[in-house]
């Protein structure tokens, strides 16, 4: 425990927070938006850097309070000789003017940021509460996880323990400076990777590199389907395979830490980075995060669960406070991170935003209490790039500063850590045991995945990918294109199919209409960070994108498919979305018109077509609605294919009888054209399901994008909808969506029967008393690691049922289990608590099996700080979507 003089602590807190405020990088977006077309990567980097540098220096000396935040008059004196910038400081602080709330514009955060010294007792390395149980909770390493969908809960506790012991030994001989060096990046652009930890004695350092869908910033890599497309498959085996292949490519390039997966929840339909994540439901997102991490780390690369937490929109992402109640935090936003911890994730990236008035990266509650204490996380927390705001964040639970410099790319800006952290230990502000803890967490994570054994050297330079001296151009793609193609197809959602318009049956004439059908006019990588919507949409934009080795468009794939059919088909195309007459002329009299449209979004440092990261509205892009209407006017077999980063409003044309079919094809990576062709021609029977709700009107969504704000403002984003994210809001308020969460059609039909539920008894009695207490309505204990405990998460009930394929083609049904809590619980009407992909031959049947744990049947008790079974009757439904329930049952509690 750190003991710190209270006055010094308060002064430091205010001062450092003030400097942090001054470092606001909101100008980043505007500066970079100017360079969104045609600029080279290094140009953009320097543009970011200049912008941040000028922002920091301008506001570091600005003493004014906007009347919104309460920080004022800060002066710093930097000691240049030692490189210490903030150890000796003078500050004067004046209170915010009373009644300072803005009279117009968005709601603003009035609580000022503070950095409390941890009030939570965190021991260095919480250990799991139970010992391994063979056949249930096997002791294993993240390098050998149980297979996808397994009921085994892997116990990584012993592996962590061994890794920590080795780390402790390694760092025991290190000086304070050496230990600090493990925690502080070398500075943006100073090293081969987007983040770099320097070599220290026998420890070779770390390369940290984006992105969640593959290695960014280098060549000869695969651009995998986005997280959103992977989640839309609802297939754990595919999600695991994607994670494994991604992990292999990172390792092949010599990256120790892959900066993904991303698991923010798509609270806002327009949220710019939703496509990087796994959709708008915590359970689905949690399963996808779990499988992805197990896959990545099995390959030997460290995964990073990001962005922790409540980072749900791009607008003002560095200047917004997400205000979230504790129950919502636990049940909704924290869940995917808990699943990540259970998957043995080694690192977590804290986000740019504030949570309840405190920056995520110095938020004692979310870092020390939620993540390290309650979930028992034994790895390390790194900052998002530039999300570090103070030296004292070390005592709030942060472990690694990324990329290390205060102003990205400006070594003269110094570092919050590095020499400052050393000085804070030397002057008694921070206990050295905390530094030991940080270094040990980092080094243990490296040992956990055997990265000390023949790990490849970094063979690329993310900042200068064409520099011959530092780029080995090593090909790590293997045959990963196969999994890309498969997931692209399996993640495509068939939304409408009348008159059996699909699959296509060797049509004699096919018209391909729309820009999204063809290649980009600039080639696959013609826009920096994929910041352009031109041609087939394979990825969204920003740091989550990748450099395509190639990008198959529908135009290429469909032509190849037509030739394979050799049935005398003809293909014509028209790729201009604005020349409606030209498009109509092409579609006229064709057997089928395939209209390809899209909607794009990305990270807020780039603006594309007026969309500053977040989408500015929910309509499809590039005149799509008019294009579809025009084609449907001349062709009675118009089929719409949308590649989209999320939901869009389809009301203008969805009921048009000439629009005979609609496929929502996600954002599928480099095999986009092949994946959709497989679905259109019936080589793959679609089984994808929507990982979010598609509303009829934007205002039907329960949470909206917050815009506006002045340069110094901290926007207030109140999560007033609480537990009612996405479909839960529609259900709770009886709002009809256009297509509900979990919806998706097939080329066949399925019926359900034979529901059975039974308790699972187990031979070991290790947790009998905990289980009995839970059954009696007591909250789970508030011990370290308690929310990840075996007894809470092991299967407690088994639900079985039969799915019959009532059609003539084989297909995969995604059976979903929705729990209906007793009314005493105050839960939404239906919550997803299980799903399974069930492959059924034509006219055949197969059994579905889904388990429920005690955790699944609990709510977070804020007062008791534990998971508790509410009283009353629990019912559940099994069905094909969140509104298509086929079987109903009661949990025998
Ligand atoms: C993004 C992170 C990314 C990091 C490094 C940040 O702007 O939010 O997701 O990993 O940059 O590129």
UniProtKB/TrEMBL annotation:
Signal peptide (from-to): 1-22
Keywords: Carbohydrate metabolism, Cellulose degradation, Glycoprotein, Glycosidase, Hydrolase, Polysaccharide degradation, Signal
Pathway assignment: Glycan metabolism; cellulose degradation
Catalytic activity: Hydrolysis of terminal, non-reducing beta-D-glucosyl residues with release of beta-D-glucose
GO BP annotations, alphabetical order: cellulose catabolic process
One Pfam family named in its UniProt record: Fn3-like
Catalytic activity, EC: 3.2.1.21
Similarity section: Belongs to the glycosyl hydrolase 3 family.
Protein name in UniProt: beta-glucosidase
